[in-house]
Amino acid sequence: MPLRVLSALDNARIQYYHFKATVIAGMGLFTDAYDFFCIPPITRLLGHIYYNDDPPTRVSSTLITVVLLGAAIGQLVFGVLGDLKGRRRVYGLSLTIMVLSSVVCGFSICGVTGCVLGSLVFFRFLLGLGIGGDYPLSATIMAEFANRNTRGAFIAGVFSMQGIGILAASGVTAVVCSSFDKYSKKSKDYMTTDVDIAWRLILMIGGVPAALTFYLRMMMPETARFTALVERNPVQAAVDMGRVLDVPMNEIAEDAPIPAHPPTYPLFSKQFLHRHGRDLFYCAASWFLVDVAFYANNLVLSTVFFYYVDKPTNVYHLALKVASLQAIVAAAATIPGYWFTYYFIDRIGRVKIQMFGFLMMALVYFAMGIPYKDYWFKQVQNSKKSRVGFSILYGLTFFFANFGPNTTTFIVPAEMFPARFRSTCHGISGAIGKVGAIVGTIGFQWASSTNANSDYPHPHKMTVAFVIWGVVCLLGALVTYFFARETKGLSLEDNEIDE
């Protein structure tokens, strides 16, 4: 017989607090996207200062990879802590690390290239720890607050804050670069020191929105599911839920005490693997595969599409062009993908959306990759030719990633596991995903290497890369087909059966 407080949560009507929790929990995802998408234009600014306006691809790749490495570690550590100490108790810590790291990135020390970039890499690793820690906690908290019929939509809403983060990164970059460009024209002086201030300012601003939600995050109560099922205190769970949800206490208070014998089998025991091993493999493998393609694809924009625009007159214009292209892709493809998932996920289910997304991504990658050397590459080189076709295909990779596995892989691990393993298993799945992101980023660095006598990426390597990403997405569809199970409309407590 399920506890009354948990049954009340499963059947509660949508309330103001659900939307408030979505924004609070989504700030970590906002910061993640902001700090990822501000790097391509920042790399251009760093290139002006340290590389004579020609930053090597390894600089951007390193600044992104080190965050991904930190995020993988953060997901593991904070995932475990979320199940041991409670979601709320460590939630503020991950946000604190994110905010402080964003700020100190702007204070990367020294005036020597290696020293500045070395300290920036270190601070971005710390930033990754905070971002990674926020993933399992945000997903778990939103899943445990939501009702069974709209749970997928609200977790997708948390994840969709990434889209807002992308637009914010592009908007802040545009404002900062435009302001410094106007200042340099007014003063008739184009100073490298001004460019140095600009990239630091862009990074530091990224921590402000997350800092503004710190108090609200600290005021969130512990989730009723953790309090009732892990701490075995349904009375406190009812009190906590009464503070934030419009549910009468007489509907959620227990008539009898909870049984005093909690389940005992540990993580990765034979019992755990028998009951949950298949689900953990599915969550981790699908997340790994989508991130291989998705993170590499993000880097294509500043390498291939950079040649779609007229040559900028200075480094501010260059950074502004990259940021503008990112904003266009986000508004036209990325954000619509998130919101399609938000609308459909509790109607058609997680498995169908993930299968469809993987298959469509594979088709689009093949359509980009197979004719890339002989057709698309020529369009990139010839500014007079129409590039609408390639632009549409590139946008569709983002649409079907977000109306597909990039979003569902964040949602499903928060639904498949018992309360006492939920945050940990989400962290494990996400950490494996970030390993895939690192693989994709390193692979892109190889694919984007230029010809000896050309500024353009090697067309043969880009062809191979697009085709490989298509094959990876097909593997993701196969993993989903053979290992996935649907969680639409089910109570989270269904995973507690026979515990």
From TrEMBL:
GO terms for biological process: phosphate ion transport. GO terms for molecular function: symporter activity. InterPro entries: MFS_dom (IPR020846), MFS_sugar_transport-like (IPR005828), MFS_trans_sf (IPR036259), Sugar_transporter_CS (IPR005829). Keywords: Membrane, Phosphate transport, Symport, Transmembrane, Transmembrane helix, Transport. It is a multi-pass membrane protein. GO terms for cellular component: membrane. It is found in: Membrane. Pfam families: Sugar_tr. It comes from the Eukaryota. The chain crosses the membrane at residues 21-42, 62-81, 93-119, 125-146, 153-177, 197-216, 280-309, 315-341, 353-372, 392-412, 424-446, 466-484. Residues 21-488 form the Major facilitator superfamily (MFS) profile domain. PROSITE patterns: MFS, SUGAR_TRANSPORT_2. Belongs to the major facilitator superfamily. Phosphate:H(+) symporter (TC 2.A.1.9) family. This is Major facilitator superfamily (MFS) profile domain-containing protein. It comes from Rubroshorea leprosula.
